[in-house]
Design goal:
Layout: E1 16-18, E2 21-23, E3 30-34, E4 41-46, H1 50-67, H2 72-88, H3 90-101, H4 105-122, E5 133-138, E6 141-149, E7 152-156, H5 164-175, E8 179-183, H6 190-202, E9 209-211, H7 216-224, E10 228-234, H8 237-249, E11 253-257, E12 262-266, H9 272-284, E13 294-300, H10 307-315, H11 335-350, E14 354-357, E15 376-379, H12 386-389, E16 396-402, H13 405-414, E17 417-418, E18 421-424, H14 428-437, E19 443-445, E20 461-462, E21 465-466, H15 473-479, E22 481-489
Parallel strand pairs: 7-8, 7-10, 8-9, 10-11, 12-13, 12-18, 13-16, 15-16, 18-19
Antiparallel strand pairs: 1-2, 3-4, 5-6, 6-22, 11-21, 14-15, 17-20
Amino acid sequence: MTTQAHTGIAAPNVKLLIDGQLIDSQSSDWREVINPATQEVLARVPFATPAEVNAAVASAKDAFISWRKTAIGTRARIFLKYQQLIRENMQELAAILTAEQGKTLADAEGDVFRGLEVVEHAAAIGNLQLGELANNVASGVDTFTLRQPLGVCAGITPFNFPAMIPLWMFPMAIVTGNTFVLKPSEQDPMVTMRLAELALDAGIPAGVLNVVHGGAEVVDAICAHPDIKAVSFVGSTRVGTHVYNRASQSGKRVQCMMGAKNHAIVLPDAHKQQTLNNLVGAAFGAAGQRCMAVSVAILVGEAQQWLPELVEKAKALKVNAGAEPETDLGPVVSTSALERILSLIESGSQEGASLELDGRNPHVASYQKGNFIGPTLFSGVTPQMRIYREEIFGPVLCVMHANNLDEAIALINANPNGNGTAIFTRSGAAARHFQEEVNVGQVGINIPIPVPAPMFSFTGSRGSKLGDLGPYGKQVVQFYTQTKTVTERWFDENDVGGVNTTITLK
């Protein structure tokens, strides 16, 4: 068990959800859920035993027998109720999330809301899970397709969006007729469990949604379990590659959304103040702990002269505990995350980047033990530097320079990742050229974080994604369903017909 500061009050145990019941784990392996602003122990989370993981999967397998036959309207109405419950409990969910993850209350509400949008989309399943029909493809022959659920599916979610990303996964899996086993991050599982409780209150039957906690052993058990048909993952490239390889080798469908290095190009004709504001918000919001954060700004031509103003805007951001009013940046999630970010900042200075703004060791009154780091900005960054090659996942912005748009696009395309990118310009011609030539799955034009609305799918590419189909939207309906094609003919009782030895239908 990790050792952290204790308050003297016994921390509650985080439950498992198996077969519709919140139960205490019998595990001997527990971790502490730590408030990153105070180091207070909020709860103890169990690393589920193999028997508990198997029980969760068995419950989901049994529940699938009846759930897959549940009327689509019944499923939709459950998620209509669920979105209502999430809205009614938004402030409570945000408070839990801020306490265990660190982001500001406003950002925590945004975390919940972006997941809520997917729940609302799930309630429209009647229009999403449609098959196709071709009438009379041959004499008296019709062909049609059905989109049928797979069975037991599983999700493995990260610490940085403990509400949104679980809500990306299990609502769409369940509403399409599957059952689900969720493994949230062990660092901040409390808001996820509250969302699971609300899902039960909305009417999701026992066994349809199960939640287990744990680390690498539980992940491996999910990837290898023969009764799990599909696995969805969001997290680091290292773990995502392992999940993809292990689960796909076990015959499962897999989608893995992984690491990123997101660039924003700034052309000199861009709206200056809007662009600078957008860059600062996208680089430093959530303390940089977003897979879609802008971590590299490429200033093109005369836009390089905007660097001092960019630094001043970043310097003005307020660092404090997420629950405090007017906070712009909360703490990063853990002491180990802070140590890694500090190590990367040190490497940037050693490798020759210019440290324009040093956010290390900020003074945060009343929260001296917090995992705080302020906005940090490097200029003169090159592709060979560690701060460019690695995903920092902290409030650190790398500024690069390019002479023209094509040079900037070449920098982006040379990077192995392809999660998101953006351009700031007033030129429609430049924007169109950029969106056509850049090799990144999600493109923003004067929008720094181009995460699509739920009717579209999250379409990261290249090194940021493994698997063909993305989460939520139309693609995830395909991911969680199997297409079955039926070709049928009904004979007239008086039509005797004859023997046909060809492969054609007549």
